[in-house]
Amino acid sequence: MSDLLKRLLIGGAIGLASAILIGWGSYEIPFIKNLLDGYEFLSYDSRMRARTAGVEQMSIDDVVIVDIDNTSVAPTEEGGLGHYFDWPQAYHGRLINTVSSGNPDALIFDIIFDKENSFNYDLVNALTNENAPTNDALAEVTGQFLQSNDPGLFVEATYKSQKAYHALVFEEEDTLNFLYKMDNE
C-alpha cells in the first residue's frame, strides 16, 4: 500500500471517529452541547453580518408598524375592542384592504390566527336568511353586522392583496394528544 493511501485511510478514520464522538457527545454530554451551541450562535451572527455586508441599510422611515396596543385590547367597557383573539377576523381583513390601498411592498402579520369562532355571525346570517327583518333600522344594523363580521372577508382581503403574509407555527409532535392511525385500523 502506498504512503499516500495509508495517510488518506488514517486521516479518514480519524475524521470519522471524531465526527462520531462529537455527534454522540453533543447529545449526551451537556458541556459539549453547550459549547457547540455557543459556537453555532456566534457563527450564525457572523454569517448573517457577512451576508448583508454589501446591502445598503434602509431607513426605518420605510417601515410602518401597526401595533396592537393596550388601548386596543382594553375591555369593551373602557372603549377598547377586548382581547384580540376575540376580534372578528374581518377586522384584520378591513385592515388589509385599507393598508393595501396604499400599495405597500409587503404587509406582514405577526399574529397566529386560529380557527375563528363565527357562531354569532352564522346565527345572525341564518336568522336573516330564514326571516328577513321588516324594520328598516333592524335590517340596516343586521346588514352592517354581517358585513363587518364576515369571516370570509379576511381570506378574501389576503387573496386580493397578494402582499399580505401571515405567521406560521410549526410545533413539535405531541404524542399525548395526537396519535398516528394504527396499522390494524
What does the model show?
It is a single chain. Among the domains are: about 5-50; about 60-115 and about 150-165, no CATH class. Helix content is about 50%, strand content about 5%. It has 6 helices and 2 strands; from the N terminus they run αααβαααβ. A two-stranded parallel sheet has the order 1-2.
Structural class, by secondary structure, is mainly alpha
Shape field: elongated
Largest sheet: 2 strands, parallel
Strand order of the largest sheet: 1-2
Low-confidence stretches: none
**Helix-strand topology string:** HHHEHHHE
Helix content: 40-55%
| Mean pLDDT across every amino acid position | 82
E-strand count: 2
Question: In angstroms, what separates the terminal alpha carbons?
Answer: 59 Å
Concise summary:
Helices cover 51% and strands 3% of the residues. It is built from six helices and two strands, in the order αααβαααβ. Helix 1 crosses helix 2 and helix 3 packs parallel to helix 6.
Describe the structure using short key phrases.
185 residues, mainly alpha, 2 strands
Write the topology of this structure:
Elements: H1 3-28, H2 30-51, H3 89-100, E1 107-109, H4 119-130, H5 136-148, H6 152-161, E2 164-166
Parallel strand pairs: 1-2
Helix pairs in contact: 1-2, 3-6
